[in-house]
Amino acid sequence: MSVEKNIVTDTIFELFENQASGPKYRMLASALRDGVTQGKLAAGTRLPPVRELGWRLGMTPGTVARAYTILTDESVLVAEVGRGTFVRGAPETAPPLLIESGPREVTPSGDAMVSLFTGRIPDLGQVALVREALARISARPSPGLMDYPTSRAFAPARQAALNWLADVPMGQVHHEDVVLSHGAQNGISLVMQAVLRGRRPVVLVEELCYPGFRRAAELLRAEPVPVPMDSQGLRPDALAELARKHEAQLLCTSPAMHNPTTHVTPPARRREIAAVARSCGLHVLEDDSTFLGEARCETYRAMLPEQGWFVSSISKTLTPSLRVGFVIAPRARRGDLRRAAEYGFFGLALPLADLVTDLLSRRETREIVRAVRERNALYVRSAVNFLGGHDITWNEEAPFVWLRLPAGWRAAAFCMAAEAEGVQVRAAEEFALRDAFAPHAVRIGMNGQVPLPEFEAAILKLRRLLDDPPEQILV
User: Fold this and answer.
1) CB crowding 249-286: b at 16 or more within 10 Å, else e
2) What is the rounded distance in angstroms from the CA atom of residue 448 to the CA atom of residue 119?
3) CB-neighbour burial class of residue 25 (10 A; exposed 0-12, middle 13-18, buried 19+)
4) Contact by Cβ (8 Å): 37, 53
5) Percent helix, percent strand, percent coil in the chain, to nearest 5
6) Domain ranges across the chain
7) What per-residue confidence (pLDDT) applies to 85?
8) Which of 261, 350, 434, 460 ranks highest by number of CB atoms within 10 Å?
9) According to the model, what pLDDT value does residue 5 have?
10) Domain 3-87: which topology?
């Protein structure tokens, strides 16, 4: 190691030692911020490689990489492919949530397209964590690699999933009630396969809903029927009427965080919906996959022990690349769910199940999820600062915000105008059933993989479009 590298590493070590206690990645990120602010790490300084600094500080390379990523996203550091990570300059202070005072000035940068079509989470140590888990798994003896997977082989992964979801009130649950799926979308299809019967079964969905509900129903030749909503979620009176009229078999809903409007269904409304489902013999599939927060109330699985199904995944909190989801069936129907999975694909690949078991059992994984939630909340607050003067619905625990467009704009025209400015957003029509009415609104995803200044520049472009609608209505 060169003398210059030694000086930088020693400086970081001293800054790290002066930090208050807490997760190591946060301590290191704070130490590096202090070093930049105090001038001890000058602009252009090349930081040590993650393995080298990890060895000096007594932490894993993944922990160092996570701290570097946090500061890169804050524009404190800059990562250059093939060269390393460098100090860019003094850190910016995150904008406070003061909607009435208006957003801070941002200068748009670059001509690259910024996708806010869906929520995307940043790498805050996940890549290193997955790589380390793969290394641990590859070092273990595994005679099962030469066999077809069995239900018994997946028991550790099912239990790890339940431990991961331990704070979610789902009533009495055993690991045999769980099936691991290829993401939440696959989990939704499995529930439909386990529940639906007849030539043209009816599936009830929210009038604006996650498009995957409709797509899964159509694949199974089921008919999706929309249920009217208000600000608290599904309307129980409309649900009862439509359930009886169509002899519906299944309701698909996202009560913890409605996609796309960010509305939350409160406990009292949930109980009313559960009462309707009970009286109509309606199964309820609760999709939890876009909710980033802690559980607020009982799930429909807890309220309806014989009719409630729960689906979640790690795509929005950890990584979407692994395509792993969790489906929890009512105790009496777990055999139906397991058969749907086994007849369809036998189950996850065993090495993937082993990887999930390892990841969900580690303390560092929960720390990363907390950091992802914090980063998402930062981006939501920033978006609200710029768009708060318009009709926007938001929640810091959602990876998107919902924007109702001002007079003069239609959703499709606004999306085209935004894309012409280098920003992609999603029109309300994509969340409505075919030929159904859709409001003049768009969903804006929180893209945490874009540095905050670039994200804010993209939101500013949307704000300028909103402030200057066309004189004639565009269609």
Assistant:
1) bbbbbbbbbbbbbbbbbeeebbebbbebbeebebbbbb
2) 8
3) buried
4) no
5) 45, 15, 40
6) 3-87, 99-127+365-467, 150-348
7) 85
8) 261
9) 57
10) Arc Repressor Mutant, subunit A (1.10.10)
**Terminal alpha carbon distance of the chain:** 63
pTM: 0.77
What are the strands, taking DSSP E only, across 126-176? none
Angle between helices 24-37 and 3-17 (to 10 degrees): 110
Other Cβ atoms closer than 10 A to 144: 14
DSSP-derived pairing of the beta strands 178-181 and 325-328: antiparallel
Average pLDDT along the chain, 475 residues, taken 10 residues at a time: 68 87 85 88 88 87 82 79 71 43 48 87 93 89 74 91 93 95 96 96 96 94 96 96 97 96 95 97 96 88 97 94 95 95 89 94 93 94 92 95 94 93 94 88 96 95 91 49
Nearest residue to 114 (alpha-carbon basis) of 416, 425, 443, 466: 425
Q: Name the CATH topology of 99-127+365-467.
A: Aspartate Aminotransferase, domain 1 (3.90.1150)
CA 443 to CA 426: how far, in whole Å? 5
Under DSSP, is residue 274 helix (H, G, I), strand (E, B) or coil? helix
Q: Which two tokens stand for residue 135?
A: 């290394």
Pairing state between β 84-87 and 77-80: antiparallel
d(CA 51, CA 68): 12
Distance, CA of 89 to CA of 80 (rounded, Å): 15
328 in Cβ contact with 102 (< 8 Å): no
Residue 132 CB contacts under 8 Å (≥ 6 apart), including other chains: 60, 62
Classify each residue of 28-42 as buried b or exposed e, where b means 16 or more C-beta atoms within 10 Å of its C-beta: bbbbbbbbbeeebbe
| Token duo for residue 435 | 């030929």
User: Cβ–Cβ contacts within 10 Å for residue 226, how many?
Assistant: 18
CATH 3.40.640.10 fits 150-348, yes or no: yes
Estimate to the nearest angstrom the gap between the alpha carbon of 361 and the chain centroid.
20
CB count within 10 Å of CB 462 equals 23
Burial class (CB in 10 A: 0-12, 13-18, 19+), 343: exposed
Identify the pLDDT of residue 67.
85
CA distances to 17, 42, 386 from 10, rounded to whole Å, are 11, 15, 41
- DSSP 3-state of 159: helix
C-alpha 360: how far from its chain's center? 16
pLDDT, residue 81, reads 57
Q: What CA–CA distance (Å, rounded) separates 351 from 317?
A: 21
Residue type for position 244: R
99-127+365-467 and 3-87 share a CATH fold: no
